[in-house]
Task: inverse folding
């Protein structure tokens, strides 16, 4: 039988990477880790606070998110993890274009506002916000954010109660400076 690893370039010359089998059934098996324990542990993972934005049926939609990370530089790809029940999940199934603004330390109120349940949204959340319209996607992006990304969905991966959305980065807009807004132990923080 052909060696399935023969075509894979070894990371270290002469050494083959270990064979990894994907275990599709793993999430369905019993675990001793309760959701509460998992969330408590994850509360200790300090994260940068972002605002994910998109347009749906002619209106802006936004969601505060810390589950945002770089994936690839060439080509530029990023990932955001969105809860299955969130309105943003439905929106990102309906549109391929979205934006991410890395919030600055003074944008705590904005972050808290977009973390509220969307059922409470009376359609005025974006009113009065310092917004820019992304030239590549038309989505709203936050003025004063540390950086702004415009993305087009490249992959969507189901993962438990979340969906991982990988985006190709169509445009990046960098602020000249500033400090991030962080989230740690269920509270907003700043570097100093
Ligand atoms: C600091 C912070 C970070 C969050 N990060 C995420 C995230 O990465 N992904 C996500 O789906 N929800 C995240 N949430 C929760 C959503 O912001 C919130 O559930 C959502 O806006 C509620 O909308 P919904 O009513 O449509 O579900 C975060 C909340 C806070 C306060």
Result:
């Amino acid at each position: 039988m052909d060696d399935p690893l023969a075509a894979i370039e070894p990371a270290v010359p002469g050494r083959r990477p270990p064979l990894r089998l994907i275990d599709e059934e793993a999430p369905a098996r019993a675990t001793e880790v309760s959701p509460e324990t998992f969330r408590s542990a994850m509360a200790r993972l300090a994260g940068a606070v972002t605002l994910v934005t998109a347009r749906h049926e002619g209106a802006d939609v936004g969601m505060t998110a810390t589950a945002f990370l770089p994936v690839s530089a060439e080509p530029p790809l990023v990932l955001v993890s969105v809860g299955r029940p969130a309105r943003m999940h439905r929106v990102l199934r309906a549109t391929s274009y979205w934006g991410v603004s890395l919030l600055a330390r003074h944008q705590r109120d904005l972050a808290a506002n977009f973390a509220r349940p969307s059922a409470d949204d009376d359609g005025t959340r974006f009113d009065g916000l310092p917004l820019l319209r992304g030239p590549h996607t038309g989505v709203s992006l936050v003025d004063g954010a540390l950086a702004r990304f415009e993305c087009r969905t490249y992959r969507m991966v189901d993962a438990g109660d979340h969906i991982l959305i990988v985006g190709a980065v169509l445009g990046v807009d960098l602020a000249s400076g500033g400090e991030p807004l962080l989230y740690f132990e269920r509270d907003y923080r700043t570097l100093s």
